[in-house]
Amino acid sequence: MTPHNGSSMPTCTHPLQTLRNASIKTKLLLLATTSVAMALLMAFAGMAVNDIRFIRSSKVDQLESQAKMLAFNSVGVLTFQDESATRELLRSMEMYPTVEYACIYDETGRVFAEYRANELSDARAREIQTSGNQITDAGVEVLHTISDAGEDIGSVYLFANMSDLQAHVQSYLMLCGGLLVGSLVVAGLFASQMQRLISSPIRELALAANRVKRERDFTIRVQPAASDELGQLGGAFNAMLDEIQHSKAALQAANDELEDRVEQRTAELTEEITQRQSAQEALQVACTAAEAASRAKSEFLANMSHEIRTPLNGILGFTELLTNKSDGNDPRKRKEYLETISASGTHLLGLINDILDLSKIEAGQLEVELSPCSPHDVINQVVSVLRARAQQKGLKLNCAWSSRVPESIVTDGGRLRQLLMNLVGNAIKFTKQGNVTIDAELDHFCEMLTIRVTDTGIGIPEDKQADIFSPFVQADNSVTRRYGGTGLGLAISKRLSAALGGDLRVESSEGNGSVFILNVKTGPLNSVALLDAPPADALMGTTTHHFDQEIDLPKSNILLVEDGEINRKLVRIMLEEAGATVTTAENGWVAVNATSKATFDLILMDMQMPVMDGYTAATRMRSDGLSTPIIALTAHAMKGDEEKCLNAGCTAYLTKPIQKAVLLGEVLDHLTRAGIAKVAPTETLGGLTEASPEPPSGLKSTLPLDNVVYREIVEEFVEFLQHHVAEMQSAYASENFESLAKLAHALKGAGGTAGFDVLTAPSAKLQKSTNDIDPSEIEATLAELADLSRRIHETPQRA
């Protein structure tokens, strides 16, 4: 810490930091001199090491030469044991100042004679086994054997110090030191001169930079003295100042512009604040609307809970009554209870269908299938279904055409029927007395069908008319309490009308009834026949199809190939009642064998069968040369199915469910072409002439149940249906999708054939979802089929 009296403690600076802070001149001088010093030191060290090694080696060689000479001269004196002569011989070593000690050993290893350079010299005699040399810290030792006639008679030992080597090293060091000092002086002088070429431009650049920093003057420039890197650095410095000067000018201009923009932005912010205040007010309104929508949804949920619980309570309550033995034996009460359960189930199914339709619409998955259909027939069906409800309330349900009637229009007949059911049903629900009128009009020029549903009911306040087409919303809560309903019907109808290329709007006033105006695109009308409008009361009669006369077939032999036992039995009875002789086969393999053994006038072939399907069987028959007409019977009605049947060799194509009139007409037509037939009659429907009938769908069979044979078929099918649905549920539980698909396909044709068209669409949906392995769709469809199965079972089939 620093004392408060202002004094500061000394700081320790690292040498490397000191070097970093030194000037470039100092660094260059240190670089030059240090480099020279290091180079010279390394050179001198290398030379010294080499010189010392050479001197030591020369000294060893010289001493060995002297030892050899002494050994040679000592042979005689050692032989005669002349000790004085030996000492004289050794005294010759005085001429070698570095030799401190010398001696001669006799053959026993005893010192025979010795020489000392001075009195201070230590005796160096040693026991050496073999001749040789060694260098120690004290000096060099040499031992050489004395031989006479190949016999060792003694040895010579010499020891020399290293004084001459030390003197040589000292003189060498003095020389190297002088050279080193001189080299450093010369290098320093040369570096001192050269560093100016480097440090001066850098110093000038640093002074210019400090001046620019201090004076904020970006016009200052340096003058590069050369074109080397320092000159390039000076040029870059000047270029940087140019850029800064330009940037400063641009910044000043930007500041001026910014001031103008700030003033402009201030005005914009003022306006934006005003807009945000308006938006906040709008948001508050939206929040209020959202809260209202939330309340409406909550009220809808409460209402829906009531709507669902009411039929559920009826179903559960009357089911419980049926299980009580006290009431279970009364046929009238059983019938009453069952009718109540059926009505509650129908109502509950309608609620669920509305919710599912709305979910599909909001998820963007609403699908419409455009195909030709009769608008007159659609209106006729709606009137037929709702007429009883209107009569129960004492209302008149009127219907009329204000223009000529198109034979057909291109739209989704099912969705159009649903639309009208919603509109007419609402009109009946909200009308206490008076009438409900349906008025249809065709605009041929605009290709638009307009249907007005007018009632004399409670009417809709003007401020509520836009809300009634929103989901979960009715005119007010009192409407829900008094009339019930979910508030979904009109919302669905509005979206359906848009999907059909038109719109739906309302004209109403409170207390004066309402008019709902539906517009639907008709598609091209150029080739569509326009029929005269029927009388207004023509639609008030029944919609049951009837025929002017029965179709009789000539005597003919027909092969019926069908894997479904109920379908096989029903079609056989239809054909035999019409006069034909029928042979049946349960699969294509049996049929191929039958045609090879007998001749048939016509073949009815189901296309989906086990063992061998109809496509393969028809192809096999044609390849065998069979020319008999083959009429395909299949539950597939998708695009391309007819072409597939014809390509397999079939002559014609009929879809299931099988309609008696269509079947017999097609059979009669092909028999006629073979020269055996009659003309098929036409069907009169609701005042309009149509070429082919469409039996009504529902939970009761459309077959003539007053005929004992047909009634037995229907009863057999109802019993079969229970087991069939159970088999489908079991197949799904065991994940046997292949078996489930086959069961669904069989039911798709068998249900319609027995007069239960209501089973056809769910069976087709189940087959598709099974092929796609869609568990959620499979479960939903199985549940729907199970419900339909129970309702068919509980519905009396006898006429």
UniProtKB/TrEMBL annotation:
<feature type="domain" description="HAMP">
    <location>
        <begin position="196"/>
        <end position="249"/>
    </location>
</feature>
<dbReference type="Pfam" id="PF00512">
    <property type="entry name" value="HisKA"/>
</dbReference>
<keyword id="KW-0472">Membrane</keyword>
<protein>
    <recommendedName>
        <fullName>histidine kinase</fullName>
        <ecNumber>2.7.13.3</ecNumber>
    </recommendedName>
</protein>
<feature type="transmembrane region" description="Helical">
    <location>
        <begin position="28"/>
        <end position="49"/>
    </location>
</feature>
<dbReference type="InterPro" id="IPR011006">
    <property type="entry name" value="CheY-like_superfamily"/>
</dbReference>
<feature type="domain" description="Histidine kinase">
    <location>
        <begin position="303"/>
        <end position="524"/>
    </location>
</feature>
<dbReference type="InterPro" id="IPR036097">
    <property type="entry name" value="HisK_dim/P_sf"/>
</dbReference>
<dbReference type="InterPro" id="IPR003594">
    <property type="entry name" value="HATPase_dom"/>
</dbReference>
<dbReference type="Pfam" id="PF17152">
    <property type="entry name" value="CHASE8"/>
</dbReference>
<keyword id="KW-0418">Kinase</keyword>
<feature type="domain" description="Response regulatory">
    <location>
        <begin position="557"/>
        <end position="671"/>
    </location>
</feature>
<keyword id="KW-0175">Coiled coil</keyword>
<keyword id="KW-0902">Two-component regulatory system</keyword>
<dbReference type="Pfam" id="PF01627">
    <property type="entry name" value="Hpt"/>
</dbReference>
<feature type="transmembrane region" description="Helical">
    <location>
        <begin position="172"/>
        <end position="191"/>
    </location>
</feature>
<keyword id="KW-0812">Transmembrane</keyword>
<dbReference type="InterPro" id="IPR003660">
    <property type="entry name" value="HAMP_dom"/>
</dbReference>
<dbReference type="Pfam" id="PF00072">
    <property type="entry name" value="Response_reg"/>
</dbReference>
<dbReference type="GO" id="GO:0005886">
    <property type="term" value="C:plasma membrane"/>
</dbReference>
<feature type="domain" description="HPt">
    <location>
        <begin position="706"/>
        <end position="799"/>
    </location>
</feature>
<dbReference type="InterPro" id="IPR033417">
    <property type="entry name" value="CHASE8"/>
</dbReference>
<keyword id="KW-0597">Phosphoprotein</keyword>
<keyword id="KW-0808">Transferase</keyword>
<dbReference type="InterPro" id="IPR001789">
    <property type="entry name" value="Sig_transdc_resp-reg_receiver"/>
</dbReference>
<dbReference type="GO" id="GO:0000155">
    <property type="term" value="F:phosphorelay sensor kinase activity"/>
</dbReference>
<keyword id="KW-0547">Nucleotide-binding</keyword>
<dbReference type="InterPro" id="IPR008207">
    <property type="entry name" value="Sig_transdc_His_kin_Hpt_dom"/>
</dbReference>
<keyword id="KW-1003">Cell membrane</keyword>
<dbReference type="InterPro" id="IPR004358">
    <property type="entry name" value="Sig_transdc_His_kin-like_C"/>
</dbReference>
<dbReference type="InterPro" id="IPR003661">
    <property type="entry name" value="HisK_dim/P_dom"/>
</dbReference>
<dbReference type="GO" id="GO:0005524">
    <property type="term" value="F:ATP binding"/>
</dbReference>
<dbReference type="Pfam" id="PF02518">
    <property type="entry name" value="HATPase_c"/>
</dbReference>
<dbReference type="InterPro" id="IPR036890">
    <property type="entry name" value="HATPase_C_sf"/>
</dbReference>
<feature type="modified residue" description="Phosphohistidine">
    <location>
        <position position="745"/>
    </location>
</feature>
<dbReference type="InterPro" id="IPR005467">
    <property type="entry name" value="His_kinase_dom"/>
</dbReference>
<dbReference type="Pfam" id="PF00672">
    <property type="entry name" value="HAMP"/>
</dbReference>
<feature type="coiled-coil region">
    <location>
        <begin position="241"/>
        <end position="275"/>
    </location>
</feature>
<dbReference type="InterPro" id="IPR036641">
    <property type="entry name" value="HPT_dom_sf"/>
</dbReference>
<feature type="modified residue" description="4-aspartylphosphate">
    <location>
        <position position="606"/>
    </location>
</feature>
<keyword id="KW-0067">ATP-binding</keyword>
<keyword id="KW-1133">Transmembrane helix</keyword>
